[in-house]
Amino acid sequence: MPFLTALVLGVGVLCLIDLVLTVGVIRRLRAHEEMLSARPVGSPPIVLPPGAMIGGFSAVSTDGVHVSHETLTEPVLVGVFSPGCSACEERLPQFAERARSFQGGRGNVLAVLVGTEEEVADERRVLEPVALVLIEEYGTGLTKALQVNGFPSVALVDERGRVVASGTTLEDLDKIPAHA
Question: How far apart are CA 177 and CA 12, in angstroms?
Answer without folding.
Answer: 62
